[in-house]
Amino acid sequence: MPHHPVFLVGAGPGDPELLTLKAVRVLGEADVVLADDLVDASILGYCPQARIIRTGKRGGCRSTPQAFIQRLMLRYARQGKKVVRLKGGDPCIFGRAGEEAHWLRERGVACEVVNGITAGLAAATSCGIPLTMRGMTHGVTLVTAHTEDGRGPNWPALVAGGTTLVIYMSVSTLAATQRQLLASGMPGGMPVAFIENASLATQRQLHTRLADASRDAAAWGLRSPAIIVVGEVAALAQSPHGLLDASSAIGALERQEPTRRANR
Ligand code: SAH
């Protein structure tokens, strides 16, 4: 009997309400769930029947090696088990879905990906930032400065492109990223938003500008997991109580729409 496909499932940013119906169904049918460290414990309530294997480094133990996780998936799949590999956000955004799917398929195991809401999109929305906005930016780029080969993105090209930047895995490399963006010609006044633990009860957000970004983040105690949004749209951030950093937001709005401020 051919075995089931392995499902690479996106758990979204944390809030279980942001799971897809498909993710909930697949979780409910799973025999084994290998859950990444970024997956919030509340999500695991959707697979009470499954054997749950935590593959993360949070909680004190060392990160489970990638090769070991892949071998586990393969072993359970070959036993005829329904295997779910559960990832934070979307499995295809900095989630190794490509390499895991390729590795499994090479060994004769089919793979199906179930999208999730990636942290960058949820983080921006959770504080009222529209990542694209007519008249402000014509696009958005999801990027990380934390690469295995140590070579970062082409920052001058990103700055020249003028899209909103959503930066993942950015906390440890923040000072360097700030330097590179400034050196690539991005203005020091460019609005920046930090969103930590997006969509969870522990969410925090900080709004500043590029020139002060790493200093403010350090003073504020920014910790992983966090998303950084860099771009004019970051000035539009709101909390349920209104504009969080009114001075920088109004400054940015003024540059865009000189009449808007007069109405405040
Ligand atoms: N596949 C995931 C990303 C994994 S890389 C996704 O699509 O979201 C891990 C990085 O994701 C973290 O370093 C952080 O930058 C970001 N991240 C994940 N969950 C987050 C959350 N709840 N709040 C803020 N950032 C988060």
UniProtKB/TrEMBL annotation:
GO BP terms, alphabetized: methylation; siroheme biosynthetic process
Pathway in which this enzyme or protein is active: Porphyrin-containing compound metabolism; siroheme biosynthesis; precorrin-2 from uroporphyrinogen III: step 1/1
One GO molecular-function entry: uroporphyrin-III C-methyltransferase activity
Superkingdom classification of source: Bacteria
Domain Tetrapyrrole methylase, residue spans: 6-213
Coiled-coil annotated spans: none
Name of the featured protein: uroporphyrinogen-III C-methyltransferase
Organism of this sequence: Corticibacter populi
This protein's encoding gene: cobA
